[in-house]
């Protein structure tokens, strides 16, 4: 069967940087408390008038350049913060990239979105629908987080990451798979934006104050994120016929430094095998995994030939993982 091979990588974060010092006093806490609880020192945020599509276009351009191509057959955009509720943001991103007439659609699996996007792109290639797919993870959570909420305001940042997938062979460097994906909708209320959807709008009543903001049940999410990411990694490795010792680097969703450490502990793996860039960008939701990949590739922590496990956990609840041998590419 034809496999999807990762052959290009590009990322972009908005230039505006918000260090912990800029929000600590407003939240009634300290820089040290924020860093100690999350591992975050700063995050990037969009300026007024900047949208998720702007970040996606920048990352997509860099990924296409990295792959030395100017065309793809499909574009999959993973995001929880589309430019508007309707239509999907992906077709507009494709148009701005000069990819008119290619298939383009959004995927919303919150922080697992990039993994779901990779699986979608892989399916398009395996089924023969596409020869090349651009998969983008982009989010602007600063636009949906209450700036005065201590539980969320310090955690999230904005950013975008993209990869190009091409048709190839399963034994090539960069070949993705297998995948492990899952969900648990009974816990959907642990991570959500209460207002703005059809359930709230159908009441014809104004949304309660603050219902337009993102909410998260931190303690419950913390436990479930560790359990599900570790469990997905183990299920994936069984499916792939691999062991934990076969993995050189783990690149998982940069939700919180303590969650990353918890996954390492549950898997019995040294934390040094887990890539992290959360201190510089915060939790960037669907952009998290590709941003971490680019950071690790750029600083030499990730090199060609290493076997890499990707994993994520997000609202829905959703989770997922996949594996590949890192190809010899230059991230854009």
UniProtKB/TrEMBL annotation:
Catalyzes the condensation reaction of fatty acid synthesis by the addition to an acyl acceptor of two carbons from malonyl-ACP. Catalyzes the first condensation reaction which initiates fatty acid synthesis and may therefore play a role in governing the total rate of fatty acid production. Possesses both acetoacetyl-ACP synthase and acetyl transacylase activities. Its substrate specificity determines the biosynthesis of branched-chain and/or straight-chain of fatty acids. Residues 254-258 are annotated as: ACP-binding. It is found in: Cytoplasm. This is Beta-ketoacyl-[acyl-carrier-protein] synthase III. Its main location: cytoplasm. Keywords: Acyltransferase, Cytoplasm, Fatty acid biosynthesis, Fatty acid metabolism, Lipid biosynthesis, Lipid metabolism, Multifunctional enzyme, Transferase. Transmembrane segments: none annotated. Pathway: Lipid metabolism; fatty acid biosynthesis. It catalyses: malonyl-[ACP] + acetyl-CoA + H(+) = 3-oxobutanoyl-[ACP] + CO2 + CoA. The keyword Hydrolase does not apply. Coiled coil: none annotated. It comes from Actinophytocola gossypii. Homodimer. It is an enzyme of class 2 (transferase). The last Arg residue of the ACP-binding site is essential for the weak association between ACP/AcpP and FabH. Residues 237-326 form the Beta-ketoacyl-[acyl-carrier-protein] synthase III C-terminal domain. InterPro entries: ACP_syn_III_C, ACP_syn_III_N, FabH, Thiolase-like. Its EC number is 2.3.1.180.
